[in-house]
């Protein structure tokens, strides 16, 4: 695989309060670049690094979907949750809140997003703990198990971008 120019990841993101679609577009690009880096790391045998990049790709995709579906999601929430979503969650996307945010994405019409996010969080743990035959610190006993899930989550990410997110961005006039 050739070299990937990830310099776009170093540029400031558009502010979601100024342009939700611009923010979502940037996050989708981030997700795709992180996914490519994950594949490159996996190809080189750096499974833990690949797991981290796959997690970052998934997290960026959650941010993009939350931005695109913000109003639809917010209307179903109470005042406190709505305020948190609008002011903090979309822009910051705290890892500790990914499960509840994934449920909101799933409720907004993205099937299986919650269990896929659990898989991404398992990869996040693997990044730090590596393979664990006892499965005390990681859900993966071997590099091969983790590699399978990395490829699986990246495949699902590509499907979601192609089938759901890209058409939504095209509808908004941001992708051609």
Descriptive report:
This protein is mainly α and 176 residues long. The protein has a single domain (7-171), classed as Up-down Bundle (Four Helix Bundle (Hemerythrin (Met), subunit A)). 69% of the residues lie in helices and 0% in strands. It contains seven helices and no strands. The model has no long low-confidence stretch (mean pLDDT 90). It holds the Pfam family PaREP1. It comes from Pyrodictium abyssi. InterPro entries: PaREP1.
Q: What would the keywords be for this entry?
A:
7 helices; 176 residues; mainly alpha
The description of the largest β-sheet is: none
Tell me the overall shape: globular
CATH-defined topology? Four Helix Bundle (Hemerythrin (Met), subunit A)
pLDDT under 50 segments (min length 5)?
Answer: none
**Residue share in β-strands:** under 5%
CATH class: Mainly Alpha
Number of domains: 1
Class by alpha and beta content: mainly alpha
CATH superfamily heading: Nucleotidyltransferases  domain 2
Question: Layout of SSEs?
Answer:
Elements lengths: L19 H25 L2 H22 L1 H5 L4 H14 L5 H10 L5 H17 L13 H29 L5
Short account of what is shown:
The protein has 176 residues and is an all-alpha fold. The protein is built from 7 helices and no strands.
């Amino acid at each position: 695989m050739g070299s990937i120019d990830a310099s776009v990841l170093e540029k400031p993101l558009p502010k979601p309060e100024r342009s939700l679609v611009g923010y979502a577009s940037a996050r989708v690009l981030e997700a795709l670049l992180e996914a490519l880096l994950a594949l490159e790391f996996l190809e080189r045998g750096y499974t833990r690094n690949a797991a981290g990049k796959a997690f970052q790709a998934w997290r960026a995709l959650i941010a993009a979907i939350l931005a695109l579906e913000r109003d639809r999601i917010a209307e179903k929430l109470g005042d406190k949750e709505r305020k948190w979503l609008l002011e903090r969650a979309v822009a910051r996307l705290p890892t500790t809140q990914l499960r509840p945010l994934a449920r909101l994405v799933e409720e907004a019409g993205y099937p299986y997003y919650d269990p896929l996010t659990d898989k991404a969080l398992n990869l996040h743990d693997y990044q730090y703990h590596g393979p664990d035959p006892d499965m005390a610190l990681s859900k993966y006993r071997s590099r091969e198990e983790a590699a399978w899930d990395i490829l699986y989550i990246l495949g699902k990410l590509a499907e979601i971008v192609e089938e759901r997110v890209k058409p939504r961005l095209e509808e908004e006039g941001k992708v051609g």
